[in-house]
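HUMAN: Forgive my ignorance: could you write out one protein's sequence and backbone structure tokens?

ASSISTANT:
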Amino acid sequence: MPGADHEYRLYGELAGWWPLISPPGEYTQEATYLAAVLSSTAAIPVHDVLDLGSGGGHVAMHLKDRFALTLADISGDMLDVSRKLNPQCAHVRGDMRTMRLGQQFDAVLTHDAIDYVTSRDDLAMVIATAFAHCRPGGIAVFVPDYVKDDFRALTGSGGGGEDGSGRKATFRERTWDPDPADDWVQAEYEFILREADGTVEVVKETHRLGVFARETWRQLLVAAGFTVAPGFANRSMPGKPPANLIIGHRGLRPSPSSAQANS
């Protein structure tokens, strides 16, 4: 989720509300599509996957029956949420910009946690992390919510999840770009948290989210050693494609750029 530079209550003291704010069932169709991408896109069979920035584990919940997952996130509170949902999976706490697990995977998946990377330098570091953990012949799949090329301001609402205790949570959001010249946008959230006894707390938070041009993504992936494949909506695959899909392939043989990236 967010890097160490930004501390948001949503991913700390409010993490236990995450399954109600963003119910796991809402990820079913997109996760089904991502599973098909992971299974069919790499040059090698994909069995083990590093979920980099796994958050509460809602995407992983739909993938764990098909892949051996290692879930990594900077927020210990979100990892605690995920452990309850995905006890079968390995969980590791670490910053996606700098972590090195000393092992490689057939694929690295970075879902919307990548949105909390807001500078080009930090994005390059995350991509380098993905490359370092990607086995030759494997792939890195990035699923940012926004790209600069087609960003539009939005308003919306969601949530509505409930648990056995009677708690319920909803939210409203407004996401807009204060300065199109930079690489981030501003998301303003209002979380309405209803306790089982009817007590309501309203939490307002402003989050800074990255929004990079597709060309920036391409340049940084190539610099790290990946070959870039454009994301596309393959309608023959099951599930629902995400709004943005960026795929980097790691070659079966080392290239000069990949050797430099690992040095």
Summary: Confidence is low (pLDDT under 50) at residues 1-5, 257-263.
